[in-house]
Amino acid sequence: MSANHTTLHSSGDEEPNHELYSAAVHKLVVLMNAGVFGFLQLSDLSAIGTNAVVSTSVMFETHRATFLCYWVLILIYAFLRIYEIKLRIVSFRMLVGHISHLFGALAALLLISVVSSIFSLIVVPLWLAWLFAVLYIAFRDVINLPANSLGGVDPPNQLVSV
């Protein structure tokens, strides 16, 4: 077995735990987006006494930029999710997975802002704290890759072995 092949797969429980975590977060993001779409439908049903078609078109016209940004974020989220599955290096897979979770949650926050802008303004600082914490941990893990992932050469002794 070559040294390069061993760096592609993590030994231990880190990879299966991250895959379970990532799958759970992706399910949560999908459920949040579906739930917010449900709330949007309920807000349209409350306008049935009036003209529901007019209220729906007015809602989409007033929040057109929000819905456009939502679909752009969902496309980025889907692209990163597919890229996460295809990556073989565990550290980069985890980094891309965390970034895709953040884009999915931000898309859900955009839809929540249509239903309740006050609630989304309260949740945005929590999302930003999550963003900084996750990216700090992920970049720290990527930057501090183990020495065996560099082809078995210790970084301080790299010039000596050349």
Reported for the largest beta sheet, the result is: none
Shape: elongated
Helical segment count? 7
- Estimated radius of gyration: 21 Å
Tell me the number of strands: 0
Mean pLDDT: 75
As residue ranges, the low-confidence spans are 1-11
Structural class: mainly alpha
Order of helical and strand elements: HHHHHHH
Strand content: under 5%
Proportion of residues in helical segments: over 70%
The first-to-last residue Cα distance is 23 Å
Count up the domains.
1
What does this structure look like?
- With 162 residues, this protein is an all-alpha fold.
- The protein has one domain.
- Helices cover 80% and strands 0% of the residues.
- The chain has helices at 3-8, 14-45, 52-62, 64-86, 90-115, 117-143, 158-161.
- The longest helix has 32 residues, at 14-45.
- The protein is elongated and about 55 Å long.
- Mean pLDDT is 75; it is low at 1-11.
Secondary structure blueprint with pairings:
Layout (H helix, E strand, L loop, with lengths): L2 H6 L5 H32 L6 H11 L1 H23 L3 H26 L1 H27 L14 H4 L1
Main attributes of the structure:
RPB1a; 162 residues; 80% helix; mainly alpha; transmembrane helix; transmembrane
Short description:
By secondary structure, the chain is an all-alpha fold. It has one domain (9-161).
